[in-house]
Design goal:
elongated, TATA-Binding Protein, alpha+beta, 47% helix, 388 residues, hpI Integrase, Chain A, three-stranded antiparallel beta sheet, 14 helices, four-stranded antiparallel beta sheet
Length: 388
């Protein structure tokens, strides 16, 4: 967990945490030595003005020589439970406008049945390990039903859930609700070896399109042509489409990396956009969303995508793999890495390289093209020599 902690005024400190999905949360703390000579640390919330006012209250209480230890006394011998702490966290420690909040609520929904009734002080390494074992044996569920027979929850999913649990426990330590956090090292597995290198072949792409309805086809084409993430694409609004410049202009709040991103509109993507504009002139579109079905915004094509894969016999292909596919194709076409990174939103060359997944067919095609050019050049040189 990344964090920044710095003093911004006498007794006032700002701490910034990076949430599970990469967004940053700011919290303020008061730190002072009380009249007993004991160093005290008080949580002051996420608003700077309120934090200053709260700090003045604590400073006044210190002048009056109040006993701060009484604040930590609980009617429960073991302290508050994880469910109680999460309720406080979501009510007081988060910004409801941040995109990460709903994601975190989803993570806690998985944690709560196992850990919810446990006191924070009673959560130990053994329980964390038990949770991991249990989750890895559970089937993947959507809408209350298993998505496929024998398909279990993957360890990257469990890693994200445990990362949020660790975040909540670390925050509880900062709030002086518990003294320490159990070690998660060795329980959360490394995901480096599981890095996906899957890209869709042209045959797979065309095959999936051939068995989809037109609204779903347009979303898949958008993913294939823009390297946008699924949520970025389905939530795209028309004000982000700059027809004159031929660009899709995403704002910082629209994307995971929290930095503006401009994506060139390819001819194939422009054809899709033109089709949607013409369709939405006939059917009212009150949402201003680009991708619609009969005037209503498309929220997901997951079910249609899974059915299309099944019908075409395609395995181990995810919707996010089209982002890998687009970036790999751009690289194969000779577009410089810096240009690709600007369009994809990657800030490091290491991340960019992780998305360029050259396939055997790409190697063969590149070398075949090179040898063909060499033969043509040699033939031209021979003709020139013979003409002298």
């Amino acid at each position: 967990m990344k964090q920044v902690f710095k003093r911004i005024a006498p007794h006032l400190y700002k701490r910034q945490y990076q949430a599970v999905n990469g967004e940053w949360t700011t919290l303020y703390y008061g730190i002072l030595v009380d009249w007993k000579g004991k160093r005290r640390r008080f949580p002051l919330g996420s608003d700077r003005k309120t934090a200053r006012e709260e700090l003045m209250v604590y400073e006044a209480r210190n002048v009056r020589k109040e006993d701060f230890d009484k604040d930590k006394q609980s009617t429960k011998p073991d302290g508050i439970t994880l469910s109680e702490w999460a309720a406080i966290y979501f009510k007081e420690k988060t910004d409801p406008e941040k995109r990460s909040v709903e994601h975190e609520r989803g993570l806690f929904k998985k944690l709560e049945p196992f850990f919810g009734s446990m006191a924070l002080s009673k959560i130990n390494r053994g329980m964390v390990r038990q949770y991991r074992t249990m989750r890895l044996q559970q089937p993947i569920m959507r809408h209350g039903k298993p998505v496929a027979k024998g398909k279990r929850v993957a360890f990257p999913t469990v890693n994200r859930e445990l990362a949020f649990l660790r975040y909540l426990l670390n925050l509880a330590v900062d709030e002086e609700l518990i003294e320490n956090v159990p070690k998660f090292k060795g329980i959360m597995q490394s995901e480096k070896s599981r890095k996906r290198k899957r890209v869709a072949s042209d045959e797979e792409y065309r095959g999936i399109l051939s068995v989809m309805t037109r609204p779903n086809q347009r979303v898949v084409t958008g993913l294939y042509e823009t390297a946008m993430r699924v949520n970025e694409l389905v939530k795209l609004t028309w004000d982000k489409v700059d027809d004159k410049a031929g660009m899709i202009r995403l704002k910082a709040e629209d994307v995971k990396e929290k930095a503006p991103r401009n994506i060139p509109i390819t001819p194939e993507m422009q054809a899709v956009l033109n089709e949607l504009k013409a369709e939405q002139k006939r059917v009212p579109n009150i949402s201003n969303r680009v991708f619609t079905r009969e005037g209503r915004p498309i929220k997901s094509i997951r079910a249609a995508f899974e059915l299309a894969k099944e019908r075409k016999g395609i395995v181990d292909l995810h919707l996010h793999d089209f982002r890998h596919t687009a970036i790999t194709q751009w690289s194969n076409r000779g577009i410089p890495p810096g240009i690709i990174m600007a369009a994809s939103g990657h800030s490091s060359i290491e991340m960019h390289k992780g998305y360029v997944n050259v396939q055997e067919r790409d190697l063969k095609e590149a070398f075949d093209n090179m040898f063909t050019r060499c033969l043509q050049e040699n033939s031209l040189d021979s003709k020139k020599a013979a003409s002298y």
